[in-house]
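Dear Dr. H.,

I hope your travels went smoothly. While you were away I took the liberty of generating a structure for the chain from your last submission, since the lab meeting agenda had it listed for discussion. I wanted you to have the full record in hand beforehand rather than looking at slides cold. The sequence, exactly as received, is reproduced here:
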Amino acid sequence: MKANGILIYSKIDIKKNYWFIDELIKCFKNKNIDLKLVLDKEVLSYININKVDFAINRSRNFKLIGILENLNIRVFNNYLVNKIANDKFMSYLFFKDFDIDCMETSLDYLYFNTFPLVMKSTSGHGGNEVFLVHSKDEVESILKKYAGNSYVFQKLCSIIGKDIRVYMIKDNPLVAILRESQNDEFRSNYSLNHKANVIEIDDRMLSICKKITQTLNSDYIGIDFIYNKGRWVVNEIEDPVGAWMIYDLTNINLVEILVGLIINELNIN
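The corresponding predicted structure, in token form, is as follows:
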């Protein structure tokens, strides 16, 4: 084999992503590269007895990525991407530090002195643990129900139930998809069975995406925008980002693109 890699997943995510996992492994095999699926909790034991040249991280375990990078194992995506993308308040601070247009965010709902507010788990994804709250009592009820979780709060954007996800490969846009809820739901996640369509993105949005990817040195991420007061603003960064919409709505072969990216980055001939 030309190289040996590992594909990292948490146990809970493997079943719903098995097709994508299988396609990645087959594509690498066709190029004489060995890719093994390894649970995030078993990675350190695996690398102790096996040669690993690179890792594709599809977990949200940024500490593990840091360990691998300290061992000079190239990880797609890197530590910083995964850490920032999976902490919504850290993402907000990143946006503010680099003057990236985003929704104002706070860890304290009293900061806004108004309702309704969007309340999000700092580590949530896929629309999980995102609530539209209308009173202090609702906030306190959620905090009690999910004791131990941390949350961020945002004002409700001016147009709800609609967002744009831009898939980025390095500094290049792969595709942009507009997602819209089909009822009065304020969330527009595709995983919640809402509708989606491929769109063209404007120069301003593309400039914002490139600023994020270049600053983080990302490989493959999703960048989500919501509409507020006449403009699209950044809402979140997704890593790992799902591929369902790409395969459902386009003819793009994401697996081939990712494999090509990794081979090129590692200079594997």
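Two observations you may find useful: The first helix runs from residue 11 to 14. The chain is about 35% helix and 30% strand.

With kind regards,
E. W.
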